[in-house]
User: Fold Sulfurtransferase TusA family protein from Roseibium salinum.
Amino acid sequence: MRSVSETTLDLKGLKCPLPVLKTRKALTRLSTGDRLTVLTTDPMAEIDIPHFCAENGHTLLAAERTETGHTFRLAKGG
Assistant:
């Protein structure tokens, strides 16, 4: 059985639409079920990342505000 990979993508300092575009690109390199943690400072990411997941079949496992921005935990969909 294949183990699930965990990847962190630090997108702090990038502005819309770059966080979503770089998240999409990172997910293309992962297998279904793999986890991706995305770190952002762009306020729009709070809307854009969950919307991107819903539109593209990925699972948003967690979204939390941090002192500097947001942390999103995703699982790649099939």
Remarks:
- The first helix runs from residue 18 to 28.
- The helical segments are 18-28, 45-56.
